[in-house]
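**Protein record**
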Amino acid sequence: MNTVHQEAVGGRFDRQHMLHARERSWAALHGIRERMRPGISEDEAKAEAAEVFAALGMERLWHPVIIRIGSNTTKTYRERSEPVRLGENDIYFIDLGLVFEGHEGDVGDTFVIGHAPQQQACAEAARELFRVTANAWHREGLSGEALYAFAEQQAQAMGWRLNHEIKGHRVSDFPHAVHKAGDLGEYGERPADGLWILEIQIAHPTEAYGAFYEDLLTLG
């Protein structure tokens, strides 16, 4: 597949709308975070998320809302969660794919409630790994493939296990899927500004918890 097609956009594409979708998606994520409390289940949290989306003027979902709690934080996008409720000292992540003004936002972050220092370290490590990997894209112009090789080396050095099944993807004006761009981790060129989502999912090498962080690769 050629690079031009892999970074193709639709006729409505506008970079400012992409940045707006990103900003609104982060607002939605933190709105859900404010509702997370001990005892809530993943399904209950997703039901309450609909109220957050409506208040922000979301047009539609482009992928299902994903909220993972506790040991489910090690699961990938397509794996089913086990029934679980948020504990007093626990970890969870939120992964949103929302459409605003016809453009796709895709954001994810991990949080801890109560006192769970090891899980907190994992959440912070996912953010840091995203930061240093995105900085490598800024600084060195790495290809998508090279970005994930870099992320793997960094994760090992930090003492975490990188989930190799999570490799990032395209976004654009909805629906990006018509361009069939493939995964960022399999893209052999330097990803363009404002078109690709860098996804990072890590796990503790032996314990049943992990963390997730994703955001748009942008020079802005």
